[in-house]
Amino acid sequence: MLRQLRMTDFKVFNEIDFQFSQGITAIVGPNGSGKTTILEAIEFALFRQVTRKEKTVRNFEDFIRHGRKRAIVELEFRAPVNRRFYRVTRSIHPGKTNADLYDDAGSDPIVSGPTKVDDEIVRLIGMDRHAFSTLTYVRQGEIDRLSRLPPKKRRADLYSMMGLGIYDKTEDRVQKQIRELKKRMSSVEDTKQRLESIKSHLPAPDEIASSRESLERIKDKLGESDDIVQILGVIEKVETSLQRVIDHLNSPELTNEYEEMKEEREAASYLKEILGVLPEVAESQLKPEIRSEAREIFRGIFGDRYSDLVIDEDYNVSLYDLRGHRVSLTAASGGEDVCVNFALRVAVNTALQKQAAHRIPPPGIIILDEPGAGLDTQRRKWLPMAIAGLKTVDQVLVVTHMEELRESADRIVLLTPQGKQRQPMVDVIE
Amino acid sequence: MVRIAHISDSHLGSSMFQLIERREDARACLKKAVDMALRHSPDILVHTGDLFDSPEPHPDDINHVLKIFKDIEDTKVIVLHGNHDIPYGYKYHHSPIRYLETVEFVMTTGDNPSSVHQYDIDGKQVDIHLISWTRKKQFQKILGDMEPESDIAVLFAHDIPVEIDELPIHYDYIGHGHSHNFKLDEDMAIGCPGSTHIIDWKRELGKKRKLIVADIDKNGTEFTTETLNDIREFKFHPGLDITGLDAQSANIKMKDWLKNLSPKKKDPPIVIVRVNGMIFAETEKGIERNSLIEFGEKHLNPLFLHIEPNWNVVGPPELDLSRPLDVKRSLEEYMEFKKDPKKELVIEELQKILGE
Ligand SMILES: Nc1ncnc2c1ncn2[C@@H]1O[C@H](COP(=O)(O)OP(=O)(O)OP(=O)(O)O)[C@@H](O)[C@H]1O
Ligand SMILES: [Mg+2]
Fold first, then answer.
1. What is the phi-psi region of residue A72: left when phi exceeds 0, alpha when psi lies from -120 to 50, beta otherwise?
2. Are B156 and B80 in contact (CB under 8 A)?
3. Considering only residues 105 to 164 of chain B, which have any Cβ-Cβ distance to chain A shorter than 8 Å?
4. ipTM of the modeled complex
5. Which of A73, A291, A377, B276 is 20–30 Å from B69 (CA)?
6. What is the SS3 assignment for A338-385?
7. Which residues of A touch B308 (CB under 8 A)?
8. Coil, strand, or helix at residue B46?
9. In angstroms, rounded to a whole number, what is the distance separating the alpha carbons of residues B334 and A178?
10. Mind listing the pLDDT tens digit for each residue in A349-408?
């Protein structure tokens, strides 16, 4: 899904080009050589966001290479939504960022400006940054994140991974509409109230009518006079004002249209209610698939100790060992924990791919920063093989020190620091 | 005539379900395979790699191998470095196979990925080309550089990472390992014996493992094969189905199933029961996994009983959304299912909000 990454003055990199291809790419190099930086550049290019040590970085200025004035990141990627290639460039300047999005071949941007580019990329990828990053990114020291989260947060994370955030998002839009309607309705109500109050201060139509009659009688008695014309003028004015107020009160704006708004608001509230229920229905359908995928992957790596992986209603994961004893995730070993988390992510990818005939496919990429922590030598060998064997994930980026992981890579990108602030040397071994 | 006996992939040190007994079994199976090979009085006994499961084998495994190979006379023993024998980075000099070569029990590719040898066997000159585990590119390069000079030439490799039609035709036999299943193409003269015992039951149960004996002379190659059975008996029962049952009935059904399997008095087998079906989460919760296994163990007295949960859990039989991530479609289906009279109204509202 990613084709090429170019960085200019981005942290340790001065000017560099990385080509990505299908299969497993391992990025290796000593501490501080820029491995994680490559992943950060990818995240930044796509979403104008970088998460580091579980915090979202807001101050992008730190990414400008020391002593330089701006940083540029350019990323070519294939959009799951239409399988076409796009190129996004973002630059970081003190205090602001810029962005342009290009069609593969095009030299003029199709969309410009950070927010617009953000939105368009979310559309092209078919998921927002949160969903994308929970689904595809496993950050350094974060592979066991899921098991560390409190159940509520874990559920939210998995929801988002499954793409069920779409319901929340629709619900938000409905809520917005409800608020809008409420506002319009209350302004109508205000108008009505005001008019009613004016009306209450004016004489009633029959009062005006009888005043007119009284005046007629006076006229009959005393004959026409300027005084009478004067009074009649005032009565007519009051009558017209009253008529206006009444007309306004009976206008469609304040009657039918108001009723329509009221009906619409009821429909919208009802819609919102149902949208709140639907994810659970959808989820109860997706979850079994995810579970059986995750079970297969987990057993592929830990089948010599465990027979099953179960996800309960609260998204608590538990394992069953070969003796049939239940082992909760908190009681499982560190390496087992790592493996469960890994299995779940890959399983969600696979399960979504199965739904893909009906929607935008998942990005088909998994990015792992030091995923092997805690696994023994044999299992570190299995980990990338487990990923490689999956048809739905066609691109895997692994950042690692671990030799076993390197061996199963199709390509190795080797970073060697060169000292004196120079960018690391890059060797690609295939 | 030159006679070659070919075995492979013994993975000494591997142990299914982490059973210590299986380490023992692996050793016994290797011994059995070597004995079977030697009964054919071959000129060459070749083991095409992954003799050990890890580059740092247990001393018991090393000693066992030394003992087996020590007594072999009149047969040249070749062992290749497999991917499991060498540590990361193709460090052939750290491979236990290299150690066996230095003590002159076997011949391998030394500290290199490949080597070329020429022998006089039975008055004939024979070229023997060896390629241990290496990267694909390296393999292709080595293969391209290897040029047989004698009438009879054989190639042994741990793995053949290229397509069959990329292989040169000048070899009378190409023997390889890496795959744990037996395969022999007599026309192409390419053979893979499979492992000497069952290592991964999921992939290897029901597949074959064989000793390959190749008799080569000027007129071609003739093959004889002999089945290598694991010394441990495996009983695999894939057909148990608990679809639709509640927990209690599922437990009873599984127990009855286990009861109907006949126990074995000696040589305890490995019994694997696979349980299939579609059940509700409630049923799954109520399955007494541990007591089932204990019951089965008591009844069958196996070395190991593995009950593999292969069932799927289905949600409440409410409604099946055809596209669970399509909001409008799901909304329609849900309201239709609920026979909700406000359906049209609500859908219209959604369309309006989504700007459709
Ligand atoms: N603005 C900057 N200009 C130049 N170098 C920077 C800048 N900001 C951070 N660095 C350096 O970049 C390095 C961070 O690189 P990165 O996080 O990619 O390392 P890594 O290869 O992932 O290392 P590890 O293996 O320890 O995780 C640090 O050594 C840091 O000093
Ligand atoms: Mg790092």
1. beta
2. yes
3. 137
4. 0.81
5. A377
6. HHHHHHHHHHHHHHHHHHHHHCCCCCCEEEEECCCCCCCHHHHHHHHH
7. 307
8. strand
9. 22
10. 777 766 655 566 777 788 888 777 777 777 776 776 676 666 667 888 888 877 666 767
**Contact residues, chain B, for A282 at CB < 8 Å:** 321, 324-325, 330
Q: How far apart are CA B133 and CA B139, in angstroms?
A: 8
Residue window 298-327, chain B: list those with CB within 8 Å of chain A: 306-309, 312-316, 318-327
Domains along chain B? Answer: 2-227 (3.60.21.10), 234-314 (no CATH)
Q: Which residues line ligand 1 (CB under 6 A)?
A: A 11-12, 29, 31-37, 62, 64-66, 140
How do the residues of chain B divide into helix, strand and coil, expressed in percent and rounded to 5?
Answer: 35, 25, 40
Disruptive mutation site among B14, B353, B356 for chain A (greatest number of A CBs within 10 Å): B353
pLDDT tens digits, one per residue of B277-305: 999 889 999 999 999 999 999 999 999 99
Q: Can you give the pLDDT at residue B64?
A: 96
A325 touches chain B (CB under 8 A): yes
pLDDT in tens, B181-240: 999 999 999 999 999 999 999 889 889 999 999 999 888 899 999 999 999 999 999 989
- Strands A55-57, A85-93: pairing is unpaired
Token pair belonging to A428: 């690609």
For position A330, what pLDDT does the model report?
Answer: 82
